[in-house]
Amino acid sequence: MEHITEIIRRRRSVRTFDGRELDGDDREKLCLFMTEIDNPYDIPVELKLLNARSSGLNCPVVSGTELYVGGKIKRVRHADVAFGYSFEKLVLYAESLGIGTVWLGGTMNRSAFEHAMELESDEMMPCASPLGYPARKMSLRESMMRKAIRADDRLEFGELFFDGELDKPLTEEKAGNLTQLLEMVRLAPSAVNKQPWRVVVRDDVAHFYLRRSKGFGHGSVFDMQKIDMGIALCHFALAAEESGMDIRFAIDDPKLTADPDTEYIASYLIS
Predict the structure, then answer these.
(1) Residues 123 and 73 in one domain
(2) Are 132 and 178 part of one and the same domain?
(3) Exposed / middle / buried, residue 166 (Cβ in 10 Å: 0-12, 13-18, 19+)
């Protein structure tokens, strides 16, 4: 089976599809996987395949497919992070099958998607994704979008990861056996490629922080940058599992900062 690190390195957002319906076997595997997805918060995320034509769904930046997957979750504490973690597991599994995806948060007729998801008053549907086989060539619109947000660029290792304190950059040499896990975090997708995660490694614990990007406050229903944090946690955990490293999830704020734009999210204890 292909390594998760290879899948993470290869995967990119896909908005232009080749028009083929999903192969029956691929669809069956995807549907089965959707029922098995979990997250460290133990908050269920309900995933559902949606047909654009029958449900009246529209996304102007997507072409070549009518199949989408939506996700919904109860509006409870940590729901945003839990959603990001679970949905990214689906995204990476789809990539392993050769199925393209892109995280959609705003560029869709949200009310139609929420109706198709049968959203209840105590639930939220932060994101959805098209599903299909990538076209050989992306559309001009997609190329321009990727260029505008510099989709393939990432901040340097020392700008994201820190040694004991949030003002002391961590080197790859000092990170040691955590280097590859942190690199998988560095490569994670995020809304408009803002890369809001910051990780402090201290006393065999990786503490994950959200460094709030300007203009990205908490939304009225969900928080896109906390969803991004769930994606980052997912990459770290999957890479650790593959490497055979024993980690334990915890929420125990070490109180390393008083910066109002930097918020503690969670930690992984490494043994």
Answers:
(1) yes
(2) no
(3) middle
Looking at the structure of the chain, the number of domains it has is 2
Residues 8 and 133 in one domain: yes
Nearest to 224 by CA among 136, 94, 104, 138: 104
Task: Specify if 46 maps to a domain.
Answer: yes
Return the structure tokens found at 128.
Answer: 């959805």
Residue 151 lies in a domain: no
The 3-state DSSP class for residue 107 equals: coil
Beta-bridge partner residues of 197: 210
Rounded distance, CA 146 to CA 52, Å? Answer: 24
Is residue 246 exposed (0-12), middle (13-18) or buried (19+ Cβ within 10 Å)?
Answer: exposed
Q: Is residue 152 part of a domain?
A: no
3-state secondary structure of 94: helix
Q: Are residues 120 and 176 in the same domain?
A: no
* Structural domain of 245: 157-270
Q: Which residues contact 172 (CB under 8 A, 6 or more apart)?
A: 157, 179
Counting every residue written for the chain, the total comes to 271
Q: Is the pTM of this model over 0.85?
A: yes
Question: Tens of pLDDT along the chain (271 residues)?
Answer: 689 999 999 999 999 999 999 999 999 999 999 999 999 999 999 999 999 999 999 999 999 999 999 999 999 999 999 999 999 999 999 999 999 999 999 889 999 999 999 999 999 999 999 999 999 888 877 888 788 878 778 999 999 999 999 999 999 999 999 999 999 999 999 999 999 999 999 999 999 999 999 877 666 689 999 999 999 999 999 999 999 999 999 999 999 999 999 999 999 999 8
CATH code for position 83: 3.40.109.10
Cα–Cα distance, 207 to 163 (Å, whole number): 11
Joined together, the tokens standing for residue 149 give 């947000």
Same domain, 52 and 77: yes
